[in-house]
Design goal:
alpha+beta, two-stranded parallel ribbon, 1 helix, 2 strands, elongated
Length: 56
């Protein structure tokens, strides 16, 4: 089975490290369940929090 990973952080309290941690956990799960993910299907969203009123 082919899968994709979507990793996201949205607040100042989180960091790019949380993205790396999310991807690592997902890749471990994928390996344990005999699935595959191509690096081109790893999506990273360094979003702005939805709680911020004045955003683009």
């Amino acid at each position: 089975m082919k899968v994709a990973i979507y990793a996201r952080y949205s607040s100042e309290n989180q960091s790019a490290k949380s993205i790396d941690d999310q991807i690592r956990v997902c890749k471990n799960y994928i390996l344990e369940h005999e699935m595959t993910v191509d690096n081109k299907h790893i999506y990273i969203d360094e979003a702005i929090s939805g709680s911020i009123v004045n955003r683009p």
